[in-house]
Amino acid sequence: MASHRVEQEPAWVIHRRPYRETSLLLDLFSLNHGRISAVAKGARRLNQPWQSQLEPFLPLQLAWLGRTGLKTLTGADPGPPSARLRGNRLYCGLYLNELIQRLLPEGEPFPAIFAGYMNALNALAQDDSLEIPLRRFEWCLVAELGYGFSLDTLADSGATVVAGGLYCLDPEQGISQLAGRGCRLRNLPGEDLLAMAAGDLSQVPVRRSAKRIMRVLVDHLLQGAPLHSRQLFQ
User: Fold this and answer.
1) DSSP letter string over 183-218?
2) Would the pLDDT of 33 be above 70?
3) How many whole angstroms separate alpha carbon 94 and alpha carbon 27?
4) pLDDT of residue 234
5) Do 15 and 56 contact (CB within 8 A), yes or no?
6) Of 2, 44, 139, 145, which one's alpha carbon is 20 to 30 angstroms from that of 130?
7) What local confidence, expressed as pLDDT, does residue 2 receive?
8) Cα R_g (the chain), whole angstroms
9) How far apart are CA 192 and CA 166, in angstroms?
10) Using CA of residue 82, residue 215, residue 213, residue 142, what is the dihedral sign?
11) pTM score, two decimals?
12) How far apart are CA 114 and CA 9, in angstroms?
């Protein structure tokens, strides 16, 4: 059976590690093929441009061979220039990469998550607030994986969330008035939920509630497994 060839595929390096004497093993996130693994043969040799090109947070156009399993990288061209992430911005980027690596199934395209990832990296490089791009990407990821829900409508009654009310979060069901067995968060202010539903994270209390909600949802998807990148912020 002939090998499947992919050319000029927009992609990002999510993680890289040495492989044998001169090669790299890559975890990639691509637009049309989702998360894949590939070997870049000879990438660690002296004067090999792949050594510096195949880095996280650099947009790339990649080519590879392989129908299933581990692909073989055959080409790598740099994409548009992008700002470097440093300090806490770098830690935020590593957190996004670990979410992709841990939560996305291999070989399944997620174009909305791919676009959300690019938007998050651009915002992390430019915006003053680092929390907002993190929360937006987390919500995109959760929603595309089938765990999104309405933030302004109650799952248990269909009623509308009201400012001044206090609500509960069940990661399997959504926002509710009453604390059922699946409740993981209580006393969520209605005004914060309404602001989140409108996409407005400009206020500190709203960002605080968004962080609590997304922490519960991400941990639910991880099924209790720890995220190593969270330790960077401690």
Assistant:
1) --EEEEEHHHHHHHHTT---SHHHHHHHHHHHHHHH
2) yes
3) 13
4) 65
5) yes
6) 145
7) 52
8) 20
9) 10
10) positive
11) 0.93
12) 12
User: What does the mean pLDDT of the chain come to?
Assistant: 93
DSSP classification of residue 143: I
Distance CA 229, CA 206 (A): 24
**Do the domains 88-233 and 5-78 match in fold?**
no
Q: Which of 1-5, 152-156, 210-214 has the lowest mean pLDDT?
A: 1-5
Cβ pair 163, 176 in contact under 8 A = no
**216-221 average pLDDT score:** 95
Q: Tell me the domain boundaries of the chain.
A: 5-78, 88-233
For 5-78, CATH number out of 2.40.50.140, 3.30.930.10, 3.20.20.370, 3.90.550.10 equals 2.40.50.140
Residue 171 tokens, joined? 């990661």
Q: Please name the helix (run of DSSP H) or strand (run of DSSP E) that holds residue 126, with its range, or none.
A: helix 111-126
What are residue 201's phi and psi, to 5 degrees?
A: -110, 25
Mean pLDDT for the stretch of residues 14-29: 94
The alpha carbon of residue 115 and the mean position of all alpha carbons in its chain are separated, in whole angstroms, by 10
Instruction: Report the SS3 class of residue 64.
Output: strand
Give the total residue count for the chain. Answer: 234
| Range from 48-52, 151-155, 192-196 carrying the lowest mean pLDDT | 48-52
Nearest to 102 by CA among 230, 234, 17, 225: 225
pLDDT at 227 over 50: yes
pLDDT bracket for residue 84 (50, 70, 90): confident
Identity at 40, one-letter amino acid code: A
Tokens 């248990």, residue? 156
> Which CATH code is given to the segment(s) 88-233?
1.20.1440.120
